Amino acid sequence: MSGLLPDDQIAILREQGFVVARQFANPEQVAALRALAERHLRDHVAPIEYEADLRYPGAPQSRNAEGGLTVRRLLNAYARDPLFAQWATDPRIGQWLKRYFNETPVLSTVHHNCVMTKHPAYGSLTGWHQDIRYWSFSDTDLVSCWLALGPETRANGGLSFIPGSHAAAFTPDQFDDKKFFREDVPQNADWIARAVCPELQAGDVVFFHCRTLHAAQGNSSDRVKLSVVHTYHPESCHPLPGTRSSSQAGVPLAGA
């Protein structure tokens, strides 16, 4: 997908639910963001979500257990540091998403808006899911922007996606009670067999739809994997009043 023009990338996103934009961020920007993320990780700068908080497969049972302070996410990236805010509102992201939405994109400060980490030890598995499962908006056409701050492969917990799943009409019984796509259901097997894990390098971005099924394995490398992820919706799409999605104001990317 390297070298494609934005309109071609957008066509792929519409068709398969995700697209890789190679070297979307420049090396200097990536190095600065990674150094900042590593410092906040080392110093446990709040707010933080720990692996033990979610207890996905492979995570410690509690914060008091061995590995209990393994970080899963550095939360609230936009307000965490001006450097993260600068990336979240980068004009290149705004212009790309404006071409996709055909209107001004708005950054959600509630959903994603974080640095995702995947530690070699105690970094948990994440089952197949759609991000929209716990979000509440007037429409379901939201797009996330995932920036790799280092190499990402299946072996170190890189994201896998199921092409076309964003456009499918799944039934409730295809998901478990936590809204993960069930791997024990025969009609899901064909979907899961289609999964792909695009290999990323530092500076690569994945734009993916909020209905696209995705998952991640554990990290079997010797280095923490770091990524920055933000979610955007068109200006005409609104978080539903009284829901978590409306608990913080969004940020229009006015320069788009």
From TrEMBL:
**InterPro entries (UniProt xref):** Phytyl_CoA_dOase-like
Database matches in Pfam families? PhyH (PF05721)
Region feature (Disordered): 237-256
The membrane-spanning stretches of this chain are none
Looking up Gene3D superfamilies in the UniProt record yields:
q2cbj1_9rhob like domain
GO molecular function of the protein, one example?
Answer: iron ion binding
Its cofactor is: Fe(2+)
> What PANTHER family does the record tag this protein with?
ECTOINE DIOXYGENASE, PHYTANOYL-COA DIOXYGENASE DOMAIN CONTAINING 1
| Protein's recorded name | Ectoine dioxygenase
Tell me the organism's taxonomic lineage.
Answer: Bacteria, Pseudomonadati, Pseudomonadota, Betaproteobacteria, Burkholderiales
